[in-house]
C-alpha cells in the first residue's frame, strides 16, 4: 500500500521532508513502525516514536488504510 | 480557549478567558524561554506543533482536569515559531472556586501537556542546535516498542 507520512521535530529531520509517500506491505501501525525503523535507522536512536492515525495516538495493532492521516511523533517537548 | 499561535501570547487574554464571576481563584502558569540549556547559551528556540492534534490532545487534558476538579474557566495558549530568551512560550490559566484546586488543576494541565501534546522544541545554541528530549540514550526505542504513554 502507499501511505503519505507526515513528520514533525527530529523525525522530520531524519525522514528528510515534512511529507513523504512510501510504499510498503505494512498493514498495521506496528508493521509500519518496523518498516520505518528499517528504512530510516536513525529513528531507532529516539527515546520514543509514536504514530498518530487520524489525529489519535495509535496502538500497534491498529490497521492502516491508504486514506489515513499518518503522522510520526518523536518525543514531545512543549511547554 | 485552546490556541496554538505564532504571535506573542497575550497573557491577559488567556486570563480573561479563564475568569469567572463564581471563581475565588485564578491560577496562571507562564512558561518562558530560558537563556541557558545544557550549560550552553540559548540564542533562540524553535517550536513546531502538529496543530490539529495539539489542540485535540490539550482538549482531552482539560477534560481530564475537569473530571478531577471543578473548573469554572480555563485557557491554554502555546506559542510556535522562533522565540528568544525571556519570551512567553506557554500560558495555562485555570479558575476554580477555591485556591487549592486552581493550583492542582493548573499543574496537572501543564504537566500532562509536556508529556502528551505533540509540540516540539529545538534549542539553538551559538555552535549548533538540538531537538529537546530526542537525544539517543539508554531509553532509545527498539522495534519491539509498543503501547502508549
> What fraction strand of chain B?
35-45%
First-last Cα distance of chain B: 25 Å
**What is the approximate shape of chain B?**
elongated
Major β-sheet profile of chain B = 5 strands, antiparallel
Output the radius of gyration of chain A. Answer: 11 Å
Low-confidence stretches of chain B: 142-149
| Chains forming the largest contact | A-B, 31 and 40 residues
Please tally the β strands of chain B and state the result.
9
Q: What is the general shape of chain A?
A: globular
- Taking pLDDT < 50 over at least 5 consecutive residues as the criterion, the unreliable ranges of chain A are none
Q: How much of the sequence of chain A is in beta strands?
A: 25-35%
Strand order of the largest sheet of chain A: 2-1-5-3-4
Can you describe this structure?
The complex is a heterodimer of chains A (79) and B (149). By secondary structure, chain A is α+β, with helices and mostly antiparallel strands. Chain A is built from two helices and five strands. Chain A has a five-stranded mixed β-sheet with strand order 2-1-5-3-4. In chain A, strand 3 (50-53) and strand 4 (56-57) form a beta hairpin. The radius of gyration of chain A is 11 Å and the shape is globular. Chain A starts with a strand and ends in a 6-residue tail after the last strand. Chain B is an alpha+beta fold and 149 residues long. Chain B has three helices and nine strands. In chain B, strands 3, 4, 6, 8 and 9 form a five-stranded antiparallel β-sheet that branches. The model of chain B is unreliable at 142-149 (pLDDT under 50).
